[in-house]
């Protein structure tokens, strides 16, 4: 039987060094490279491909001028040829069996139309920073996303082309949360998702608190555009005050995923969670009042 053709879409934004690691990994996949293509979408027109840059033979790099990773992903989808479409990010390093295991998972469980794969964190050293401690609990819990929401993030996701044909492309007005919004549409259209701990990419844990704050602001802007509040300032203010409540519901997750942490570390992680939730809420409130959402 002829293998299914797979298209891998990777948006990138001023990240050639980490993308190089990703492309080297994709060049060493166990899946026959005659049956998959790599489409890198450069989302910053002024940032050209470096000289002597490694580009696999089945890879092409295209440019998308309109800002936004979901715009870039849509551009890649439109150029792609695969029956199966896989997504990862420029800072991810896929395992060598990443594509093979995804295709096998679809063949073994043919009632599923989407896969959310495992995202394995790696760290700069064995001595974790406060930000990295936080990441061990909260970063990329794909198994939880699948179980609770029927969603998954595009750092490690596979689906069939027909799902995009049926539910549409990613929303291009979103700078964050577009993968969640699309996954909800796919879920509501009864395109089932499975979690696979064999479909693995590695992702660097955020090392500094400033990186977490930047992401929290980006998420807040995405949430504001994802679900616009009607009723003007008053309704936005009420929603803002509601979003300031302490994240009590996250305590079981800290206890379950932070079993190796001592009490002080668990309290620290909870504090960071609360602090970041306030940052997100504030950014969401400000964007709802007209501020431009962040993309970086």
From TrEMBL:
Organism: Mucilaginibacter psychrotolerans
Annotated Gene3D superfamilies: Spore Coat Polysaccharide Biosynthesis Protein SpsA, Chain A
Coiled coil: none
Protein name: Glycosyltransferase
Keywords for the protein's UniProt record, in alphabetical order: Transferase
Pfam families found in the cross-reference section: Glycos_transf_2 (PF00535)
Record-annotated Glycosyltransferase 2-like domain positions: 7-159
Record keyword Transferase present: yes
InterPro entries: Glyco_trans_2-like (IPR001173), Glycosyltransf_2 (IPR050834), Nucleotide-diphossugar_trans (IPR029044)
GO molecular function list: transferase activity
Domain of life: Bacteria
UniProt key word Kinase: no
